[in-house]
Amino acid sequence: MKQQVHILTSASGLILEGGGMRGVFTCGVLDNFMDRGIRFPYTVGVSAGACNGLSYMSEQRGRAKYSNIDLLDKYHYIGFKHLLTKRNIMDFDLLFHEFPERIIPYDYPRYASCKERYEMVTTSCLTGQACYYEEKHNPKRIIDIVKASSSLPFVCPITYVDGEPMLDGGIADSIPLAHARELGYANNVVVLTRNKGYRKPNKPTKVPPLFYDKYPALKESIRRRNALYNEQISMVEELESRGELVVIRPINPIEVNRMERDVSKLRALYDEGYQAAAALQFK
Question: Taking Cα atoms as reference points, which of 219, 95, 229, 93 lies closest to residue 167?
């Protein structure tokens, strides 16, 4: 039985968590939304959520799935070989240049013409705080922002947006629900890539010696990342229990890890996301 969700008002928002390759769950959710013509006045994406959200905003149904599953199987763009050769666990040249420019072109004109708002989250290395960017008209800046949002600490290089050093948005704001509510979007759908009840280990994240010594505020944000994430999940679950938002998440603990390369697992998780979204009825 489909759950009725009354959210498509001017105060409706869509929040997309990251999670690396677990984001294929989100790909399934967004493809279902596109199949049904479901749009939100405001969407915000973090890391993998930012990448997948871009294809949703340009209404390129199936593009994110193709990038995350089919092209991963073809190009093997994740792995320690890239870390050794390019000091980056992912092939960013392929992901953020070859893919959108040549292999699976991104529809920048269509994105520029869409009426809905879209923000992508990064973390400033200088302040350790989250930055929220909207950009629809400058393709280079769009790529700079989404690349920064996806630059995982320790295994990806620092990326620059408008000359400021940035890393993964999930460091400072993994689930930007509070931000959406501060902007006035009180009626939200949150797409998570972990099952209900999941929490990160209740201990500070260790920052290896020599990492980010120039950026003490960033190091502190990395250390308290687990605690902040758990606080955000508790907020999501509390508002969900009160009927103040809708959460779409995997039902069971998933077997897909952040750097997963098993395409059969990825396809299964995509299908789960598609079906989870299909169970919601919007008015």
Answer: 219
First-residue to last-residue Cα distance in the chain: 16
CB atoms within 10 A of CB 181: 19
Q: The tokens of 6 are what?
A: 């009354």
Q: Is 46 helix (H, G, I), strand (E, B) or coil?
A: strand
| CA nearest to 2, candidates 258, 222, 283, 228 | 283
Half-sphere exposure of 103 (CA within 13 A, CB side): 16
The strand pair at 12-16 and 42-46 is best described as parallel
Backbone torsions φ then ψ of 115, nearest 5 degrees: -85, -20
Contact 150, 168 (CB under 8 A): yes
**CA 155 from chain center: how many Å?**
17
SS3 44: strand
In this predicted structure, what is the pLDDT of residue 258? 79
Cα–Cα distance between 1 and 3 in angstroms, integer? 7
**CA 60/CA 110 separation, integer angstroms:** 9
The tens digit of pLDDT for each residue in 215-247 reads 999 999 999 999 999 999 999 999 999 999 999
Q: Which long-range contacts does 210-214 make (Cβ < 8 Å, 24+ apart)?
A: 211/153, 211/154, 212/125, 212/153, 214/125
Closest CA to 168 of 151, 189, 155, 154: 151
DSSP per-residue letters across 226-240: HHHHHHHHHHHHHHH
The predicted pLDDT at position 7 comes to 46
Count of beta carbons in the 10 Å neighbourhood of residue 163: 5
99 φ, ψ (degrees, to nearest 5) = -60, -60
Residue 17 near residue 190 (C-beta atoms within 8 A): yes
For the chain, the C-alpha Rg in angstroms (whole number) is: 18
Taking the C-alpha atoms of residue 79 and residue 235, their distance in angstroms, rounded to an integer, is 34
